[in-house]
């Protein structure tokens, strides 16, 4: 069973930083892609960043490019999202998601746009002005 558990959310002032973690289990790390998505109150879900765990390629949304960085620790089955220079508009529930690179046949850019098959429960990030 694929499981994803996020942590690391909280309250931070504008300009500050947070690091989110996503511990994954139930699948072979290098066969999957992982994405971070977010949903602010009253807004649609937005894809933030996705990573191909097989070749390490990434795709970022324009809204976070240069400020957020995704990284992995395969020994810990963990994917991180380092968020710097946070802005009030980054306030949202952040979700970690996963999809199979093999069965989906999709690029990570497509996954980031349309979503992935497996989801965590989310962690709330609040950025105060």
Instruction: Please report which band the strand proportion falls in: under 5%, 5-15%, 15-25%, 25-35%, 35-45% or over 45%.
Output: over 45%
What class would the helix/strand composition place it in? mainly beta
Compute the CA-based radius of gyration.
Answer: 14 Å
Largest sheet: 7 strands, mixed
Number of helices: 2
Q: Specify the helix fraction band.
A: under 10%
Query: Topology as H/E string?
Result: EEEEEEEEEHHEE
The rough form would be described as globular
Strand tally: 11
Low-confidence stretches: none
Euclidean distance between termini CA atoms: 40 Å
Please provide a brief summary of the model.
By secondary structure, the protein is mainly β. It has two helices and eleven strands.
How would you sum up this structure, described in words?
Helix content is 9%, strand content 50%. The protein has two helices and eleven strands; from the N terminus they run E-E-E-E-E-E-E-E-E-H-H-E-E. It has helices at residues 101-104, 108-114; strands spanning 3-7, 10-13, 18-25, 32-39, 46-52, 58-60, 68-73, 78-83, 92-100, 118-119, 123-128. The strands form two sheets. Strands 2, 4, 5, 6, 9, 10 and 11 form a seven-stranded mixed sheet that branches. A four-stranded antiparallel sheet has the order 1-3-8-7, with no helix packed on it. 33% of the residues are buried.
